[in-house]
Amino acid sequence: MAANIQQFVSERGIKALFHFTREENLASILSRGLLRRDQLPREGLNNAA
């Protein structure tokens, strides 16, 4: 997946990507990283957007 994103970004000359999140999610993201939606229940997290 990461290689696909890297290729997509490179082919299009994209220089930056941004991820927006709610402030209450920051601690989890900093400790676990960004997770796919299907990984959230396994981590005991709510997957509501």
Automatic annotation (TrEMBL):
<protein>
    <recommendedName>
        <fullName>DarT domain-containing protein</fullName>
    </recommendedName>
</protein>
<keyword id="KW-0548">Nucleotidyltransferase</keyword>
<keyword id="KW-0238">DNA-binding</keyword>
<keyword id="KW-1277">Toxin-antitoxin system</keyword>
<dbReference type="GO" id="GO:0016757">
    <property type="term" value="F:glycosyltransferase activity"/>
</dbReference>
<feature type="domain" description="DarT">
    <location>
        <begin position="15"/>
        <end position="49"/>
    </location>
</feature>
<keyword id="KW-0808">Transferase</keyword>
<dbReference type="GO" id="GO:0016779">
    <property type="term" value="F:nucleotidyltransferase activity"/>
</dbReference>
<dbReference type="InterPro" id="IPR029494">
    <property type="entry name" value="DarT"/>
</dbReference>
<comment type="similarity">
    <text>Belongs to the DarT ADP-ribosyltransferase family.</text>
</comment>
<dbReference type="GO" id="GO:0003677">
    <property type="term" value="F:DNA binding"/>
</dbReference>
<keyword id="KW-0328">Glycosyltransferase</keyword>
